Structures are given as structure tokens and as C-alpha cells.
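User:
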Amino acid sequence: MTFASPLPPVEIPEEHLTAVVLRHAERLADQVAVIDGVSGRSYTYGELSGAIARFAGGLVARGFGAGDVFAIMAPNLPEYAVAFHGVAAVGGINTTINPTYTAEEVEYQLRDSGARFLLTIPMFLETARKAATAVGLEEVFVLGEGDGATPVAQLMAAEPYEGFAQVDPAEDIVALPYSSGTTGLPKGVMLTHRNLVANLAQGEHALEMDEQEVIVAVLPFFHIYGMEVLMNGVLYNGCTAVTLPRFDLEEFLGVIQEHKVTRAYLVPPIILGLAKHPVVDKYDLSSLRQVFSGAAPLSAELAAEASARIGCEVVQGYGLTETSPVTHATPPGQFKPGSIGVALSNTECRVVDPDGRDLGIDEDGEIWIRGPQVMKGYLNNPGATAATIDEDGWLHTGDIGHVDDDDHWYIVDRLKELIKYKGFQVPPAELEGLLLTHPAVADSAVIPVPDEEAGEVPKAFVVLKPGATATPEELMEHVAGHVAHYKQIRHLDLVDDIPKSASGKILRRILRDRERAV
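Assistant: Predicted structure:
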């Protein structure tokens, strides 16, 4: 059976994303839109709108326009919104890159997305230039100064671009973040103007924000959660965002105290710190009205512990990169322990067993989702798209859960093979492929194992070639040289064989079950 959202339906504007995000810019021209939590540098809504127009003008002067791809490889800074919406304003596509990636990882995304330009900061310029050179990128921009890159100030010296390019909201892509989906290597997730506009509108009855609110933006803007909720969502609702380029617990707590932050959108590892770290008691967090958790499962026990410690409700939601991202959230006053909340407005859900049979209330199965926030598809990968979204528009999440008789949803397990390290996706296949490049390795498999701080960490099982020798430490170092910190293997066992199906597919569930039994 199909479960409809219990929330009222909302109207979804058929408009350009940036026009919708900046809907309050003229009226709130003198209100601060975004503040750099480290330096205090800020933009009012009027200043932000003007900066976006100048950035867009610089792009047009370079022949960049509809359908062109621009890569942003930067930490959270006020200028992230300037660049993202400058690109969007002229009909371009933003592909957002984790700035801690290695040059190999950046090169892969630049090549796969077909990016023409890349923006970074001096700290990551060497890696950016190396990847850009490898793919023949046209130009690299830098916030500030750096050898071999064009200062963003120079780009923004052009005539401002007036208005917004004409787009087909349902078809034209505006964001291209990368996700591994339910399995495999990272894929470009094609999110249209309508996808992101829809998800902003769908939050009306669940993600309540008013114009007096201050939101701490510590979750990365390159990740869909930070991009849509903390960047676009805050501006769409006329709030103020305080950005932090990285997570440091004391710096984060200091920002909440100094700026009287009212809402914090976080991930479970940060909430773990709020619940248990002694330094929390040194800061005044009384301004917080709500902490919202996403990107990875949050236990009811940890939510309750953190809530009691900091004196505000700690709720949880759910979503995927492929759903722009939010599909479920907890409306004010409707918190239920362990629940991801209710389906957002205009969102339908099903619970399906392995044979494709629909299940009912309190029955566990794979959650399927349909709504205007569901992606257009994976870039240049119709096979992966068809495996994720069926002919009737249902997105198969790969997550196991159920709905109760109050329309609240719960996630209990995961079909998909992704590892969630502090909310970041770690695809086992990528790590297995890297292990196989070591001359001593004959076969490998990678699974998630529980970790109190990170949620999950990668553990590898490796079969060595006959006569070959290699230590677990050597093999973990081999992988670490090719991937970002969060993807690194933390545990490794040498084994005699890897369990596989008749078709040769790694049976990771058997490895997970063995690990739990130890």
C-alpha cells in the first residue's frame, strides 16, 4: 500500500532555484544573511544578491552559460553561496567536491562531470591544480591569491548579470553532487531546479524557520544536507547562517554562544559530543530551540541524553542525495524517540518485501519513495538510474524500516552496502578496488563495523596471493595514500577466502554477521 504524507500538500513554484532562494533579498536587504563564524566577515541579503550578480557576470564574460559545469572545492564560507548561485543564475550546473579529496578523487569527479572551471581556496590549491591539469580544465579560481589560479575578485570585476537565465525547472540540472547510491563507485546525481525548489517548499510544515533565527552551518555545503538545508534553506527562509569551515567542538560551541544560535542541523557524531564531552558545560547553549540530526542513524538513547544535557529537543530526519535530500522530518511537537519523523508534504512512501510485495503498518521492508524531490537520474549512467528508480517513479532507498499507526517512520537496517562515516558515504567497492592494486592482494572485501564516535568505519578482509606477504598496516597505508581521510580503512584482517555468491558477488552480509558474532 502507498502511505501518503500526513502533512498538508504545498504548492511548488515552477521557477529558477536562485530566484526562489533569494525571494526575500530585496525586502531583507539590510539583514545579515551569512556570517563567517571564524573571521566575522558577513554579507547582508542585499550584498549577497549583488555579489551573486557580479560572480555570474564574470562567468558570462568567459562564455560560461546554460548547461556548463562549474566545480566548487571549498569549505563552508559565505562565498560558497555567492559561487553556487552565481553559477545557477546563468543556467550553469554546480558539481560540489569534498575539499579533503586527493588529487585522484578530484580528477575523477572533474572528468566524470565534464567541469569547465573549478573554484577553491589557497589551502587546497595544489591538489586542485594537479587534478585540473590532468583533465585539461579551462581555468582555476581561488578565493584570495595563489600561483596558477585566477583570484575570484578578478572574476567578479565584470559587469553584473541581471536577473536569472531562463530554465526548464523540471529538466535543467542545477546541482551535481556525487553519491554512491546503494552500491558502487560515486555517481553524479542530477538534481534539477524543480527538485531543489520542491524540497525547500516541502519543508514548510516540518523544518520550520523564521526570519529571526540564527542557524549554525557547520555541515559541509558540498554535501547535499549542508547545501540544501543550511545554505539554500536558511536563505529561502530569510534566516541568518553562521558558517564554520570545519568542525571543532569548542569553536562550534563558541559560535552558538556568541551568535545565540537557535537551530543546529547536525549529524550523530556531533550530537555524541554534545551528550558526553565535558567541555559542553562551559558554554551557554540556552538559545538553542532544536537540534536536528540527519545523514546517519541516531539512536533514541543518544538523542535523549543529548536533549537532557543541552536543554532542547533533539529530533531526527531522513533523506538521500538522490532525494534533494529530505524525505522525512519531525514536525514541531511531534517528536517520537527513534523515529525519523513523518513523510514531508507531497511525498509518498511504500514498504516492500524482497519479493516486491507491499507491507503494512509495523512491518519491516525496503522503503520506497516517490515525490518531486526525487532526482532526474545519475549522470551518464542509465543502468544505475533504472536500478534505483523504477518505471513508476519509485526510488528504492536500500534502507529497511517501517511506519507506525501515527505515520511516523523508523529505519532499522540497511540493504545498501554503503558505509556511513560521520554521515559521509564510503563505498566499499572503491576501497576494494584500491586494495586490489597492491601487488600482494588476490581478493578483498570491505564492510562497515560500528564505531561510537564515527558511527561506522571501514573494515577490510584481504586474501593474499600465494607466496606473497603484506601486513595489515602496510595494506591500510596503501589505501590511505589514495583517498580522503574519512574513507581510510581502520581495521584489516588477512583471511583465506572471501564469501561470494554463485555469480561472484561479494556476500558482505555474511562478513557482517561473522563480525557481529565475534
